[in-house]
Each structure stands twice: as C-alpha cells, then as structure tokens.
Design brief:
Layout (H helix, E strand, L loop, with lengths): L2 E2 L2 H21 L5 E7 L7 H13 L2 E7 L5 H13 L5 E6 L7 H5 L13 H9 L7 H13 L7 E5 L6 H10 L3 E5 L6 H5 L4 E4 L17 E4 L3 E4 L5 E4 L4 H4 L5 E2 L6 H19 L1
Parallel strand pairs: 1-11, 2-3, 2-4, 5-6, 5-7, 7-8, 8-11
Antiparallel strand pairs: 9-10
Length: 284
C-alpha cells in the first residue's frame, strides 16, 4: 500500500517548533525579519506569497514585501538591496521574479549579502553547498530532504534520481543528496532513456515543471516519489487546477511513498523560508 506523504501535516508540526524558537529569540530582544523583493508582475496574490505572509504571521516573524517594475534599473535595485544589507534589523532577504527581460538573475541575486541570502541562491552560498561547507541552502531542496527523512531512517547508499537541474531545486538537491551519501543521477531535457533510468531509482524527485510527465512506467516498485512540480493547467471545463510533474493517480499504485500536489513539498518549502530566516536571525 502506498504511503501518502502529508507535507501539510508535517509542515504544521514544523511550524509550531519554529514559532517556539522565534518566541524564545524575541524574549532576548531579537525579532527575525524577512524582506521579500519582487520584480516584474506583482504576484502578491499567488499561492506562495499568500502562504508566506500567512506563515510569517503565525510564526511571529516580521515580514515586509517590496515590488519593483520590470523596467527597474540595476543601479536602483543595487541601492535598495545595499540598504537592506546594511540594516541590522533585516536578517533575511528573498528575491522573486516573474520575468527578467532586461536584467540578469545572477547579477541581482549576488547583490544580496550571503549572510542574508535566505534561499541560498547567491553564487557564494551555492559554492559552499557544492563544497560541503556551512552556508544557506535553498528552501525547496531542504523541504525535499526533510520529507525523505520522514519516510527513510537512513538514505545513505540509496539511488536517487533527480529530474531537473535548476539552480533553485535540481542542482542544489543533487548536491544535498550526495552530501547525504546517496548515489545520485541527474536527468534533464537532454538526457536519454529517461524512463528506464528513473525505473532504477529508490528515490525519484521530479522538479521539471512538466505536468504529469512521470507515469507508473517510470517507477520501480516501492520507490519513494517526491513531486516538486507546481503546474497550473486548464481542464476541459476551463477550470484552472494545479498538478505536479507526477501523474499522482497513475503512480500511487506503484510507489511505496509519494507526495501529493499541492500539499506535499510546497508547504514545507514555505516552512523552510521561515526556518532559514530564524537561522539567520540567530547568527546575526
């Protein structure tokens, strides 16, 4: 029988622990503060932004959001981010963008101090992860690892296949799994025989952004399947729904354990945004 990994329930328990630690820190006179910078289309009403604000309030973390238009110049962003870097009341900076027409993500993200880089996105923090050195780690890969450790007491030696190689999920997750002594295969859009390689995995993580790409034919009996995909699609009635990279109904009869979408990895990712903010506040 397939185990459904209830990310929302696990996140709820994790959030209580975060709130307790935040309250202890506030007693010492320090209130963790997270600043989110968004560029392009204002997405403050999307699922992630709403959950972020809701969870910041629950955990008693101070949260501020700033939006810039797509045409904003790098010099303006640099001036603003530098002011946040120098503000001792700000512990964590998170950058989001719906589109980057005129600016480079890497140029913007590296304006953020590595000591306030809450999502481990700067080149310095990504390099630290690659070398196994202490630093901030992206939230979604941390969420995946947390859920895996709910299912597996020890993942060392297991064969993990990661679908996708983005700098926010696929690449850092591959490195985290290597650091946890897994044998890791990274697959992407240029990979050959994806289905047959996936079928050798004890752990399969999909972060491709391809709706229902993974079917039961990709899954070894009893494998653990973690679906990071968040894909809005329109059904035959014109109703928009969110699905993962994994065809949940098809795969759930074969997998030993599986995360649903959206209540699998997503709630834990937002939780780790708060966790990392707290961690940075404790280190300040």
């Amino acid at each position: 029988m397939t185990t459904i990994i209830d990310g929302q329930r696990i996140a709820d328990e994790f959030n209580l622990a975060i709130r307790d630690r935040v309250r202890d820190l506030r007693k010492s006179g320090v209130t963790p503060k997270l600043v989110t910078i968004s560029l392009g289309e204002n997405d403050e009403n999307n699922m992630f932004s709403l959950k972020r604000d809701e969870l910041a309030k629950f955990t008693e973390i101070e949260s501020r959001n700033y939006h810039f238009e797509t045409q904003t110049k790098l010099t303006e962003l640099k001036k603003f981010i530098q002011s946040l870097n120098n503000d001792r009341s700000v512990h964590a900076i998170f950058f989001r963008s719906s589109m980057l027409k005129y600016l480079s993500f890497r140029d913007i993200i590296n304006l953020i101090s590595s000591e306030k880089d809450v999502d481990g996105a700067t080149t310095l923090n990504q390099g630290r992860l690659f070398l196994g050195e202490p630093g901030m780690i992206p939230c979604a890969p941390l969420a995946v690892l947390h859920l895996l450790r709910i299912v597996h007491e020890n993942i060392a030696g297991k064969h993990a296949v990661v679908l996708g190689r983005s700098s926010s999920v696929g690449r850092p997750l591959t490195q985290l799994l290597l650091n946890a002594n897994c044998t890791v295969t990274s697959l992407h859009s240029y990979s050959k025989d994806i289905e047959s390689v996936c079928k050798t995995a004890d752990i399969l993580v999909s972060a491709m952004g391809n709706p229902k790409f993974v079917t039961k034919d990709f899954i070894k009996d009893g494998a653990t399947v973690i679906d990071v995909g968040i894909n809005p699609i329109t059904d035959e009635k014109g109703i928009i729904q969110v699905v993962g990279d994994v065809d949940f109904d098809d795969v759930s009869g074969v997998a030993g354990a599986i995360t649903p979408v959206p209540n699998g990895v997503a709630p834990m990712t937002v939780s780790y945004l708060m966790h990392n903010t707290l961690k940075l506040a404790c280190c300040a």
